Amino acid sequence: MRFSILTLHPELVRSPLDHSIVGRAREAGKLEVEVCDIRDHAPGKHRQADDAPYGGGAGMVMKVDVLDAAITAARSEGAKVLLATPSGRRLDQAWARELADESHLVLVCGHYEGVDARVEELVDGEFSIGDYVLTGGELAALVLVEAVGRLLPGVLGNDDSAQDESFSAGRLEYPQYTRPRSYKDMDVPDVLLSGHHAKIEAWRREQSDERTRARRPDLLVDVDPADDAR
Ligand code: ADE
Q1: What is the C-alpha to C-alpha distance for residues 104 and 45, in angstroms, rounded to an integer?
Q2: Do domains 2-149 and 164-228 have the same CATH topology?
Q3: DSSP-based three-state secondary structure for 48
Q4: What pTM does this model have?
Q5: Any idea where the domains of the chain sit in the sequence?
Q6: Which among 133, 135, 142, 143 is the best mutation to test ligand 1's pocket, defined by most ligand atoms within 8 Å of the CB?
Q7: 164-228, what's its fold?
Q8: How far away, in angstroms, is 7 Cα from ligand 1 center?
Q9: 3-60, pLDDT tens digit by residue?
Q10: Is 44 left (phi over 0), alpha (psi -120 to 50) or beta?
Q11: Which of 28, 50, 70, 109 is surrounded by the fewest CB atoms within 10 Å?
Q12: CB-neighbour burial class of residue 85 (10 A; exposed 0-12, middle 13-18, buried 19+)
């Protein structure tokens, strides 16, 4: 799968993509990420990508003609183009799973002061990573690459780990422990040392339900019963 990130700040997004699981997956050719400088499509010596808003007001607005040229250059046959904006559709695990089936995602990073409204006509959709306002779409694009990229085949070492985790079945993940068995009066639950796999599984499920009820009861509405049969 391929991602193209269109940004005015290429250096801001490059480094996080070189590390950890996404970095290794890129090296292994499991996913491809290109970072495109929107200013490469801005004409003139000053490569101006934004301008003052019609009607007046503070701040600068990203230009539709420059974004159109950048999107056209990045788009491939069958690509899905998404604009990062706080007014977009909220990214969640279910949508990340759907996006993992795309072949090419083009992510357009707006800046906080605004983007010409006509850009909405040039993209296939808009996404938000939450109800707060960032200074630009760059961190949002990185979040999407991470959330979608880790679901691609072969990106996580163990194919089970993308399944058996928070949100996969509309539940938070059960608690995990490793050595030492006892630390500052905090002990690892005995059941995990029992070697009894059925009991361990039942305990994990119970913990996952309990945690979800206590911390994110909103997840318990709209659970697909098919997903619930873990
Ligand atoms: N740009 C600014 N804030 C954003 C958000 N919350 N999600 C996506 N893009 C954004």
Answers
A1: 32
A2: no
A3: coil
A4: 0.91
A5: 2-149, 164-228
A6: 133
A7: Trp Operon Repressor; Chain A (1.10.1270)
A8: 13
A9: 999 999 999 999 999 999 999 999 999 999 999 999 999 999 999 999 999 999 999 9
A10: left
A11: 28
A12: buried
